[in-house]
Design brief:
Layout lengths: L2 H10 L3 H14 L4 H13 L5 H18 L2 H17 L3 H14 L6 H13 L38 E2 L6 E2 L14 E6 L3 E7 L9 E4 L4 E6 L5 E6 L6 E10 L3 E8 L26 H10 L21 H9 L15 H6 L5 H11 L3 H13 L9 H4 L18
Antiparallel strand pairs: 1-2, 3-4, 4-9, 5-6, 6-7, 8-9
Helix pairs in contact: 1-2, 1-3, 2-3, 3-4, 3-5, 4-5, 5-6, 6-7, 9-11
Length: about 425
């Protein structure tokens, strides 16, 4: 386990002294990793006895680094840690200014209400012109940033002439070492399944022994050195939803770094990879009546009492199947002759007191050939009851997707 991961584990276990030690080691390896300063600032605030000056110093370094990168969420976190450290140092005017800046960027920050009340109460208890109430800071501090760690190992002298393959005599071009992808070309993509979120960071030649990866329940951070001597830092914070950090994995491949994040709530669909605020935890308890509630929601009558518009490929537009079923299953009129409407006397007995729509489709199925039946069964089951096709040549080509009526949304149940 790397030092950052050990620090995160110690912080979670409330072993703040160990957290400070591990994050200090992590910072010595990656001196411009914003998250490490934020976490160490948190540990300094909670250690016994607390070191508020060190916490404030770390928060200001983190804020400066985050502002240079334009990473909004890291700016908010660093400014919040700065405000808390200033409050603990009894610089209440400065602390209030920081809390106000956090509120400007994220008015929904959960801790603002509590800290806002605390700082207001402290300011009310001060006499006029008290130095503790003065605002002496700027929104973004001017601090000296740590320099990137330089690799001071001697560089072996290589021959300027290309080597030759002994078997063929052909010249061989030396392979490039380290990250081969320029920093401005490194990109990431993601996709999700029911249980996982997979993030790929595309960069060739990422060194396994020099890469720092930190996966938390709501964040991800990775840092690795570039040939220029600087570090490339990538972070996602916060995720749209929570993940199981212990069950999540990271793999460094030849052309990318791949993260497989285990969703804390299986089946939860993420509309985006990141969010302004962490996703609210969802209950794992399942309602036994969930299926019935979903059915009622789908089949509920709209306020306009209009007939649902089912998906169709007909050029003439949607068909009102309720009307078709009623027309086909209505009772035959007395006196009708063979070949005239209502002449099938068996129809009246078959659907007497039954749902006419179900009766219509039962009759359609019973008179269909095997391919038509297969098409009806496959399309109905795979579409979760939202589509019904009699064309096997089309249905047999692949899975029939769920097609809810207009204005409705299909959800798992």
């Amino acid at each position: 386990m790397d030092q950052a991961a050990k620090g995160a584990a110690a912080l979670q276990a409330k072993d703040y002294s160990a957290a400070v030690t591990h994050y200090t080691e992590a910072i010595s390896i990656s001196p411009q990793a914003v998250d490490y300063y934020i976490k160490r600032s948190t540990a300094y605030t909670r250690i016994s006895p607390p070191d508020y000056s060190a916490a404030h110093s770390d928060a200001e370094v983190a804020l400066t680094l985050a502002s240079k990168r334009g990473k909004r969420e890291l700016i908010i976190q660093a400014q919040l840690r700065r405000a808390i450290a200033l409050f603990s140092l009894e610089r209440y005017g400065d602390a209030k200014a920081c809390f106000d800046w956090v509120k400007e960027m994220n008015k929904d920050e959960k801790s603002l209400q509590i800290w806002g009340m605390k700082v207001e109460n402290k300011l009310k208890g001060l006499v006029e012109d008290d130095v503790k109430a003065k605002v002496t800071i700027q929104r973004y501090p001017e601090v000296e940033l740590p320099e990137q760690k330089q690799d001071k190992r001697p560089i072996p002298v290589r021959s300027s002439e290309p080597s030759k393959d002994r078997s063929t005599g052909a010249e061989q071009t030396p392979k490039a070492e380290g990250v081969q992808t320029p920093a401005n070309k490194i990109r990431h993509e993601w996709y999700q399944t029911d249980d996982t979120v997979v993030v790929s960071l595309f960069a060739k030649g990422v060194p396994k022994d020099k890469t720092t990866i930190d996966i938390q329940s709501t964040s991800l951070a990775v840092s690795f050195p570039l040939p220029t001597g600087s570090d490339y830092d990538f972070s996602l914070d916060p995720f749209w939803g929570k993940v199981d950090a212990a069950a999540s994995t990271a793999k460094i491949l030849a052309t990318k770094v791949e993260f497989v994040l285990k969703k804390a709530t299986a089946g939860q669909k993420w509309p985006s990879l990141e969010s302004d605020t962490p996703a609210a935890p969802e209950s794992n308890e399942k309602n036994d009546d969930g299926a019935e509630e979903f059915k009622r929601a789908v089949l509920a009558d709209n306020s306009t009492n209009s007939v649902p518009s089912y998906p169709t490929s007909s050029k003439s537009g949607p068909k009102n199947w309720d009307k078709v079923a009623n027309d086909l299953t209505k009772k035959p009129k007395k006196g009708n002759k063979d070949g005239e409407e209502g002449a099938d006397d068996g129809l009246e007995e078959e659907f007497e007191g039954a749902d006419p729509v179900n009766g219509f489709f039962q009759q359609l199925y019973s008179h269909a050939d095997p391919d038509t039946r297969r098409a009806m069964m496959k399309s109905y089951q795979e579409s979760n009851g939202t589509a019904l096709s009699t064309n096997w040549s089309e249905v047999g080509k692949g899975k029939v997707e769920t097609q809810p009526p207009d204005g409705m949304e299909a959800k798992p149940w």
